[in-house]
Amino acid sequence: DTGVSQDPRHKITKRGQNVTFRCDPISEHNRLYWYRQTLGQGPEFLTYFQNEAQLEKSRLLSDRFSAERPKGSFSTLEIQRTEQGDSAMYLCASSSEWGGIYNEQFFGPGTRLTVL
Amino acid sequence: GQQVMQIPQYQHVQEGEDFTTYCNSSTTLSNIQWYKQRPGGHPVFLIQLVKSGEVKKQKRLTFQFGEAKKNSSLHITATQTTDVGTYFCAGPGDFGNEKLTFGTGTRLTIIP
User: Fold this and answer.
1) In what helix (H) or strand (E) does residue B99 lie, and over which residues does it extend?
2) pLDDT in tens, B86-108
3) Which chain A residues are Cβ-neighbours of B100 within 8 angstroms?
4) Which of A4, A56, A74, B4 would bridge with B103, disulfide CB 3.0–4.6 Å?
5) How far is the C-alpha of B32 from the C-alpha of B42, rounded, in Å?
6) Inter-chain touch B97–A95, beta carbons under 8 Å
7) Positive or negative torsion for Cα A65, A105, B32, B15
């Protein structure tokens, strides 16, 4: 399967615990995005990388959230001291950049986080 | 900040009827993208519109980008049960398509 993959698919944790999610983008894509989606809402942008550089972060991303993309390949999203309000689907997407033409984003299956 | 609204929020149609969802942005867009999310699934890209007044068709789906590049619509002719899902429009942020601002979505259900 050459699509975007995310791990784990589901995570249940207790409030106050730390969690880390992983995203493997499509191999030739240099752009990687993280979104959060709650029930009945559209995805909300969190952050994005071009290669290994984190170029933009949403105000939604509090200090408890950190994302990395070492070597410009896979990415991790860590949430420290989880709160019940962090419960959501965390979606990763990737896209390529060529010729200055805007390209579609390919989404992974998401990681559903439940904070008890 | 940029806001993207869609109407209606929900639409229930009999199989075979037509369906339309409308998307409106608070700011002018360089392009607009449409995604479909099946129940329990993830967003899947449908199409991108770039030019003012552009109309694109994919089989029974017709997409339109407004002349002012602030609104768009998706029309499905003769809906089928496979059309079930939530349709989102999405516009890029200030720096191109580095981030997408998604609309509120229109959830389509089909009555067989």
Assistant:
1) strand B96-102
2) 999 999 876 555 788 999 999 99
3) 33, 43, 45, 105
4) B4
5) 19
6) yes
7) negative
